[in-house]
Amino acid sequence: REAMKSYPFSKYNEEYQMIILRARFEYAERSTLGTQPERYRMVLDEYFNYKNTFSNGKYMPEADRYYKKAQSKIDVLPS
């Protein structure tokens, strides 16, 4: 995220944002059951950040998969 702040017009911003989304998802996956709902919601936030910025981006199919997985986890986890 710091790279995006330091270099807002970098040609790698899409990659940076996708790395953040992947990291959020892995963080949620490895979290305890008590913290997973909140962390999966963070995945959804990052997904919408990516989608709003790069709606036709090359990583959109992968981002959609993370969104669907996170949403399904939120639906079954106790909140």
Structural description of this entry:
The protein is mainly alpha-helical and 79 residues long. It has one domain (2-76). 72% of the residues lie in helices and 0% in strands. The chain has 4 helices and no strands. The mean pLDDT is 95.
- Please provide the count of β strands: 0
Mind summarizing the main beta sheet?
none
Total count of helical runs of at least 4 residues: 4
> Unreliable runs, pLDDT <50, ≥5 residues?
none
**Beta-strand percentage range:** under 5%
Please, what is the average pLDDT?
A: 95
Distance from N terminus to C terminus (CA atoms, Å) equals 28 Å
Classification by helices and strands? mainly alpha
Rg measurement, Å: 13 Å
Q: Please, how many domains?
A: 1
Global outline: globular
What's the order of the H and E elements? HHHH
Query: What percent of the residues sit in helical stretches (DSSP H or I)?
Result: over 70%
Task: Please give a handful of descriptors for the protein shown.
4 helices, mainly alpha, globular, 72% helix
What is the fold's blueprint, element by element?
Elements: H1 2-6, H2 13-29, H3 36-53, H4 60-76
Task: Summarize it.
It contains four helices and no strands. It is mainly α.
